[in-house]
């Protein structure tokens, strides 16, 4: 038997993204959800929410119906979920309204970060998690502000992101979308597609795939990663590019197209159709991270995400490792840093885990991957 619950979820800044994933997990498992905007109270966010769940166990993963209250509580384990049953009746108009809203939410949809961003913006502001991208953020925000002032169809927001692997292009695209949602410039979803998603196996079907992706992204962002691969996919890739150009012209303002890829290959992509060059008015370059930035990512981004700290005596060795990474063949920026971080965690667990990543564990990780000397070729960082 179905039941209604309402209350609030309390969580820290570090748990913000995890909470968003948890909410969308429940939505994907047929759990009707209604959320409000979080407010920061005492260093924590308090998110009002209501949901509908089953009175008997159905199974979050395998069940066809919405989950049980126990399963909802398990998903939010680690945060503080305060709820109470809602019993809609004619004496309680507020409960009736909540129950009605939950029933209308039967077609569960994805929840965006902007929907649960704290109203007083003490933390979790768009772009706050990016490192070394101040100029790119400034230019993108200027365009969004202009669209906010004069209308989405008055300013071309289509954007091209140019950079090597791991330089933050995908993260930037998602943050740009969330900023557009927060500023009420965008009201649709973030749809990610690759060349394979937009090219059909049969003649004449490709344009339909492009239109379908456009429709899913209407009001929001269509992000095409490694867009240059469309230019390398024979005639069907050209069909996809032509269909995209037509939609960008006929549906001006409907969708923000963000195309990302490596600089040299993206030049080839633009040459395929002369109309592409003029339609991507904003082009942002993402340089490779230097050693100092890599160290910042490891210490101030990756470590807090895993609720660990870096021992002071490990910092000197870490600085040398980051410099070695930047000089290594196959250097992939933040991806290389994450691989090193994961090796470090593995060695730390072997040496006794704990909440501090030690110099000894780092030395072991570097030795295993031949990173102890900048002159040696590292393994596993391609």
Description:
The chain has three domains: 2-116, ACT domain (Alpha-Beta Plaits); 134-286, P-loop containing nucleotide triphosphate hydrolases (Rossmann fold); 291-368, Helicase, Ruva Protein, domain 3 (Orthogonal Bundle). Strand 8 (221-224), helix 9 and strand 9 form a beta-alpha-beta unit. The longest helix has 18 residues, at 334-351. It is built from 15 helices and twelve strands. The strands form three sheets. Strands 1, 2, 3, 4 and 5 form a five-stranded antiparallel beta sheet that branches. Strands 7-8-9-6-10 form a five-stranded parallel beta sheet, with helices on both faces. It has a two-stranded parallel sheet with strand order 11-12. The protein is an alpha/beta fold.
> What is the count of helical runs?
15
CATH-assigned homologous superfamily of the largest domain? P-loop containing nucleotide triphosphate hydrolases
What is the CATH architecture annotation of the largest domain? 3-Layer(aba) Sandwich
Mean of residue pLDDT values: 83
Number of domains: 3
Subunit arrangement of the protein: single chain
CATH class of the largest domain: Alpha Beta
- Shape call: globular
Q: Gap between N and C termini, in Å?
A: 52 Å
The helix content is 40-55%
Q: Describe the biggest sheet?
A: 5 strands, antiparallel
Work out the radius of gyration: 24 Å
Coarse structural class: alpha/beta
Query: What fold name goes in the CATH topology slot of the largest domain?
Result: Rossmann fold
| Uncertain segments | 120-124, 372-382
Give the DSSP E fraction (strand runs of 2 or more residues): 15-25%
- From N to C, what is the helix and strand string? EHEEEHEHHHEHEHHEHEHHEHEHHEH
Number of DSSP-assigned strands:
12
């Amino acid at each position: 038997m179905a039941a209604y619950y309402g209350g609030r979820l309390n969580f820290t800044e570090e748990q913000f993204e995890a909470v968003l994933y948890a909410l969308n997990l429940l939505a994907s498992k047929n759990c009707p959800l209604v959320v409000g905007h979080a407010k920061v109270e005492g260093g924590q966010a308090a998110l009002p929410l209501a949901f509908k769940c089953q009175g008997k166990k159905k199974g979050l993963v395998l069940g066809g119906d919405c989950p049980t209250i126990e399963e909802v509580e398990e998903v939010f384990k680690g945060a503080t979920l305060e709820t109470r049953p809602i019993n809609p009746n004619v004496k309680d108009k507020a409960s009736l309204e909540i129950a009605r809203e939950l029933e209308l939410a039967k077609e569960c949809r994805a929840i965006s970060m902007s929907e649960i961003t704290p109203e007083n913006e003490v933390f979790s502001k768009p772009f706050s998690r990016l490192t070394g991208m101040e100029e790119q953020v400034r230019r993108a925000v200027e365009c969004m502000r202009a669209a906010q002032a004069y209308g989405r169809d008055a300013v071309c927001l289509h954007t091209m992101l140019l950079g090597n692997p791991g330089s933050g292009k995908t993260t930037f695209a998602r943050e740009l979308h969330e900023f557009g949602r927060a500023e009420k410039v965008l009201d649709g979803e973030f749809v990610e597609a690759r060349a394979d998603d937009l090219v059909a196996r049969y003649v004449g079907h490709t344009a339909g795939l492009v239109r379908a992706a456009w429709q899913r992204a209407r009001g929001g962002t269509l992000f095409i990663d490694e867009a240059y691969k469309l230019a390398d996919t024979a005639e069907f890739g050209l069909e996809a590019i032509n269909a995209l150009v037509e939609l960008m012209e006929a549906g001006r303002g409907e969708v923000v197209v963000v195309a990302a890829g490596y600089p040299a290959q993206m030049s080839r992509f633009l040459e395929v159709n002369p109309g592409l060059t003029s339609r991507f008015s904003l082009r942002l370059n993402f340089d490779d991270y230097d050693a100092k930035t890599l160290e910042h990512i490891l210490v101030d981004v990756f470590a807090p995400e895993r609720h660990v700290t870096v021992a002071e005596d490990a910092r000197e060795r870490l600085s040398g490792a980051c410099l070695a990474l930047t000089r290594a063949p196959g250097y992939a920026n933040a991806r290389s840093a994450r691989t090193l971080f994961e090796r470090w965690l593995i060695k730390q667990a072997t040496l006794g885990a704990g909440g501090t990543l030690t110099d000894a564990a780092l030395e072991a990780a570097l030795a295993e991957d031949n990173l102890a000397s900048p002159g040696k070729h590292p393994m596993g960082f391609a």
